[in-house]
Amino acid sequence: MSGSEPSHRADRAALSATYIGHATLLIRLGGTTVLTDPNFDEALGRFLPRVSAPGVPLDKLPSLDCLLLTHAHADHLSFKSLDSLPRDIPLYAPPVISRWLRRRGYSHSEPIAPGESVPVGGFRLHAAAATHRGNRYGLDRWRHESNMYLLETNDVSCFFAGDTALTPESTHLVDKHIIAKGRRLDVAFLPIGHAPWWKPGFRKGHLTSDDALSLFDRLGARFLIPYHWGTFNHVTSTAFDAIKRLRAALPDHPNSDSIKILEPGETFRLPAP
Q1: How far is CA 245 from CA 85, 222, 233, in A?
Q2: pLDDT tens-digit profile of 17-43?
Q3: Backbone angles phi, psi at 238, to 5 degrees
Q4: Which CATH superfamily is domain 2-269 in?
Q5: Against a cut of 0.85, is the pTM above it?
Q6: How would you class 272 by CB atoms within 10 Å of its CB: exposed for 0-12, middle for 13-18, buried for 19 or more?
Q7: What is the DSSP letter of 242?
Q8: Residues 6+ apart with CB under 8 A from 34
Q9: pLDDT tens-digit map of 156-211
Q10: Which listed residue, 80, 91, 143, 171, has the most CB atoms within 10 A of its CB?
């Protein structure tokens, strides 16, 4: 179900996703092409270089229909990347982030608040609040808003969690728009991270690999695609700590065949039910 090149020739009901790196995924759904949390930077700040090249270079991206932004952290919001991307397509972001972007000249930024839904090309986009304090800098706590997103057509759906913790509310968006209609979520895109034992606060705003597996089970999705790994080293962990732990857990997971680990540049295509 994967290949080395993104392909977008499937019909309008199909879903495909290419892993570019970290939280940047190229998703095709309902004939509409979406780029999530675009970050093609060579490093995070001065001390955290990128350890793998983007799976699809900026100049090789297909035509895009919209951009999704979950929060303002530098690994999810890259101004340099936004400056290289089209400005004639909507850039959806939490309201406080959208207002900030507009003040900075990104007039294509569109606010979407938790609980809101908007039509985007061939699908509907739903937003919910993530459990993650996403302010850009230490003192700008008013800029902490973080979103999760659900993308759905009448036949196919996917959930993009941004950054979030595992809480009783983590499945709310899918419960409301998918499960309540007697449907099943097709793909869960979930972040995985790792923090050492001496950083217990990590799980208050992030998923570990074990948390991602638990959320996958609770969502009841057909497939899990993990992201947030293999791109940047962090202060307390390497880019590969989380994925190593996830791979180690797969032999004991009852749905391990439904967990698709994409290397940068690989594409997943949703099989027929």
Answers
A1: 34, 21, 16
A2: 999 999 999 999 999 999 999 999 999
A3: -90, 170
A4: Ribonuclease Z/Hydroxyacylglutathione hydrolase-like (3.60.15.10)
A5: yes
A6: exposed
A7: H
A8: 26, 27, 28, 64, 65, 66, 67, 68, 120, 151
A9: 999 999 999 999 999 999 999 999 999 999 999 999 999 888 888 787 888 999 99
A10: 91
